[in-house]
């Protein structure tokens, strides 16, 4: 979350400077500002990856059996989730606060579905950040530039789609489809597959039996 | 101040200042130095024992190892294990500190956003005598700096006063002072808070009910904080009184003064903990020389399974730190009543020293806890509350400050695990918080507002 905030800070700084330099033309600079924000976010995600990797190595050297207690996949998930949470919070908290107050949605001719679409977009964005985190970390770990490029590309695409916003069919629909696809891709990156899902759903009873055995075998050292 | 209680104690003053991190024990020093002769290790060990008197376990192990046949390998293994355990427990206790800090901030922000009373300007404390209603920016800045100077000097004076009281063994006076201030906090401020909340939601309450509620709340609070009680109840009370105190600060400190005071407090904290001269250090050293615990102090403990026992003499280190927290707390929390200026402690959050005292055996069982001074809670909440109150109704600033403070806390705890000595908890968090507040308010807010109004997402 901290890294995302740093990215946001840098992007806002850039945007403010641009606005000042170009003399108060807010709307025209927004696509550039948004693109810069996206790129900076991905950069900070990379920085986050580097830092977590270093921490991981440090913990691995400290631990008894040379393995770090953190699994990279889990940290990827957590990092993506936290990016998503802070991004979602920043996107929606002000809107939520305003929605509790007096006012009528769409009174000036805007869409009356502002709040509900905001909610869905935020949800999609949170999920997307989580998935991108997993894919990104995996791609960085295996040094595959394709994964990286796809993550950055899809982030830019998502952000660009939101520019079409009152035309919700064109923005919300594709974004939700993109979320689904990215989710499936992240799932397969994290090692899941159709078989895994089936196995997980069908072997609900097994672990309990094994658990009993396991605990019976393991005598606590005290 | 954060106390990281490992099974070893620190060479330096464990905790000087209420806003410093205290490492009640640190890993045994001999294990870090390969070539130490056994006698030195033994001496250092004895010295540590005398100072803190607890956690014999690892010291013994280390001493045993040292006096063996020069076994640097075993030392390093021990050191590694110590470090690993430190880090593992450290991570757990970081999380355990996040929860109360977050809760305190949530209470403060919720109150600020809903109860108008705490954002109305209704006068100032006598400790910030200069008004900020001046027309020119320069004059306002000057007034806020002067306010800060007055406030910090009040704190220093009160600290020195407390140190002198402690040095001349006026224990009863200090006890009375603490109890008086916690009384005031638990009864008076709660009454005001409850009154304002009821006013905001337009709920009627009759005086008998009010009396019963406040009486029960306050009495249970006094018992929990100064004597014995369930750990979670004590933690809850400490969080509540920190939040109350932070709300009072937010209300009565003028805007620019509040920011300058926050900055100055963190610098003062940094200097008071890390510089060799200071009333708090003297306090701690005096306490350690006398080998006695100090008073119920203002510290939040996240430790699990602390047994409730009597205060033992061998917890001088922790007690001393607690005392220093009192001192700073006293100075800092002086409030409006000029008549009680000297004898009043505005609020005590006196967690029972018994709570943090464990016997030697328990410590050998690797009970580790982290302690954070309540002053830290208060100033974190003041920062976030001020952000919520004055950032033009923007939630993004509040969120950004919240994240910044938590990250600062995390970093500070990391440094504590690395350095294993008393560290101030305020500077890093407050610095991050201030940076994020000003930058988010001025730079990020227009950007996000423009994006949100067009429903653009980045």
Describe this structure in words.
- The complex is a heterodimer of chains A (222) and B (458).
- By secondary structure, chain A is mainly α.
- Chain A has one domain (1-193).
- Chain A contains 8 helices and no strands.
- The relative contact order of chain A is 0.09.
- Chain B is mainly α.
- Chain B has a domain at 91-298 and 371-454.
- Chain B is built from 15 helices and 5 strands.
- A 5-stranded mixed beta sheet of chain B has the order 3-4-1-2-5, sandwiched between helices.
- The longest helix of chain B has 43 residues, at 72-114.
- Chain B is globular.
- The model of chain B is unreliable at 3-70 and 304-367 (pLDDT under 50).
- The chains are: A mainly alpha (222), B mainly alpha (458).
- Chain A binds chain B through residues 1-2, 5, 8-9, 11-13, 15-16, 26-27, 30, 33-34, 37-38, 41, 59, 62-64, 69, 86-87, 89-91, 93-95, 97, 114, 117-118, 121-122, 125, 158-159, 162-163, 165-166, and chain B through 80-81, 83-84, 87-88, 393-396, 399-400, 403-404, 407, 436, 439-440, 443-444, 446-452, 454-458.
Assembly type:
heterodimer
Largest beta sheet of chain B: what is the strand line-up? 3-4-1-2-5
- Let me know the average pLDDT of chain B: 69
- Overall pLDDT of chain A, averaged? 79
Low-confidence stretches of chain B: 3-70, 304-367
Structural class of chain A: mainly alpha
Using only CA atoms, what is the Rg of chain B? 23 Å
Region (Disordered) (chain B): 1-72, 319-356
EC number (chain B): 3.4.23.-
Pfam family, one (chain B): Presenilin
Main location (chain B): endoplasmic reticulum
């Amino acid at each position: 979350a901290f890294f995302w905030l740093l990215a946001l800070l840098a992007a806002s700084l850039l945007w403010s400077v641009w606005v000042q330099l170009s003399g108060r033309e807010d709307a025209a600079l927004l696509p550039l500002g948004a693109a810069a924000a996206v790129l900076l976010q991905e950069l900070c995600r990379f920085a986050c990856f580097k830092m977590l990797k270093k921490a991981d190595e440090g913990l691995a050297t400290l631990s008894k059996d040379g393995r770090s207690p953190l699994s990279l996949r889990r940290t990827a998930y957590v990092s993506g989730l936290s990016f998503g949470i802070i991004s979602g919070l920043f996107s929606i908290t002000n809107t939520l606060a305003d929605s509790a107050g007096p006012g009528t949605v769409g009174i000036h001719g805007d869409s009356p579905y502002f709040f509900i679409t905001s909610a869905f977009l935020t949800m999609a964005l949170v999920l997307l950040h989580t998935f991108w985190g997993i894919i990104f970390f995996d791609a960085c770990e295996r040094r595959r530039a394709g994964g990286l490029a796809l993550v950055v590309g899809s982030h830019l695409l998502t952000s660009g789609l939101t520019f079409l916003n009152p035309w919700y069919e064109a923005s919300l629909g594709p974004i939700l489809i993109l979320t689904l696809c990215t989710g499936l891709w992240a799932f397969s990156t994290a090692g899941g597959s159709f078989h895994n899902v089936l196995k997980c759903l069908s072997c609900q009873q097994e672990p309990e039996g094994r658990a009993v055995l396991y605990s019976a075998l393991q005598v606590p050292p005290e | 101040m954060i106390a990281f209680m490992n099974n070893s104690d620190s060479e330096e003053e464990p905790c000087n200042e209420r806003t410093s991190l205290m490492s009640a024990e640190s890993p045994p020093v001999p294990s870090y130095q390969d070539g130490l002769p056994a006698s030195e290790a033994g001496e250092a060990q004895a010295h540590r024992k005398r100072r803190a008197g607890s956690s014999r376990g690892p010291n013994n192990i280390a001493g045993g190892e040292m006096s063996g046949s020069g076994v640097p390998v075993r030392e390093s293994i021990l050191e590694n294990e110590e470090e690993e355990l430190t880090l593992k427990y450290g991570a757990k206790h970081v999380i355990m500190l996040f929860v109360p800090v977050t809760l305190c901030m949530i209470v403060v922000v919720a109150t600020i956003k809903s109860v108008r009373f705490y954002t109305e300007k209704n006068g100032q404390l006598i400790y910030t005598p200069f008004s900020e209603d001046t027309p020119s920016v320069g004059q306002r800045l000057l007034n806020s700096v002067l306010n800060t100077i007055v406030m910090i000097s009040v704190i220093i004076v009160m600290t020195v006063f407390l140190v002198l009281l402690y040095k001349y063994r006026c224990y009863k006076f200090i006890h009375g002072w603490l109890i008086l201030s916690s009384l005031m906090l638990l009864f008076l401020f709660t009454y005001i808070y409850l009154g304002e909340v009821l006013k905001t939601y337009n709920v009627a309450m009759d005086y008998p009910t009010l009396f019963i509620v406040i009486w029960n709340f306050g009495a249970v609070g006094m018992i929990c904080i100064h004597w014995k009680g369930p750990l979670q109840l004590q933690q809850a009370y400490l969080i509540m009184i920190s939040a109350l105190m932070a709300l009072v600060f937010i209300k009565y400190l003028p805007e620019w003064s509040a920011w300058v005071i926050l900055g100055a407090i963190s610098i003062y904290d940094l200097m008071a903990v890390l510089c060799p001269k200071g009333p708090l250090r003297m306090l701690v050293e005096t306490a350690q020389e006398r080998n006695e615990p100090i008073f119920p102090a203002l510290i939040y403990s996240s430790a699990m399974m602390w047994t409730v026992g009597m205060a033992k003499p061998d917890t001088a280190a922790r007690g001393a730190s607690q005392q220093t927290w009192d001192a700073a707390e006293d100075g800092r929390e002086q409030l409006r009543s000029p008549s009680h200026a000297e004898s009043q402690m505005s609020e005590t959050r006196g967690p029972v020293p018994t709570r943090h005292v464990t016997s030697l055996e328990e410590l050998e069982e690797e009970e580790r806890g982290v302690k954070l001074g309540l002053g830290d809670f208060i100033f974190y909440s003041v920062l976030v509350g001020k952000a919520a109150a004055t950032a033009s109704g923007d939630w993004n600033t509040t969120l950004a400050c919240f994240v910044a403070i938590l990250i600062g806390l995390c970093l500070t705890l990391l440094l504590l695990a690395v350095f294993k000595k008393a560290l101030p908890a305020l500077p890093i968090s407050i610095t991050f918080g201030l940076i994020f507040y000003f930058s988010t308010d001025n730079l990020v807010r227009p950007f996000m507002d423009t994006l949100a109004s067009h429903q653009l997402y980045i």
